[in-house]
Please model this.
Amino acid sequence: MRWRKNGDPLGGRWPKVVEPICSMDDCERATWCRGWCKAHYERWRKHGDPTINPNDPIPLDILFWSKVDRSDLHGCHPWTAFLDKKGYGRFTHNRKTYSAARLAYQLHYGVDPGDKHVCHTCDYPRCCNPAHLWLGTNRENIDDRVAKGRSADSSGEK
Model:
């Protein structure tokens, strides 16, 4: 009879269990996992940070460098996303495609290469390590290629 009357067979003698709320500031939703609500937990799982708002645009530099393997501090930092037919990295942002090496140079040094070529000291087309990149003219790039013995020899029967 008591259960039908007030829904609690013990007559309300036990305290009600209060569900904990999300540990993030200004969030009143119930806890889902790791002390966060489901929305903050999913943001952490997807982006690695529960405070990221998925509706906010991700800054260009963070988006770009997330596609570069920078595990080797002094060696090459290879581009891990799309490559063109010649093996050079390509990065698309806001429907515009950039050369990965050019954008790495521009983001690191804050200088737009303009008409200059972004050349590699390491001769690795996927490399985006700013320490391995330098600006040069087309002639300087060709002279560098010839000096390193990487140009095709079109003389004779070779």
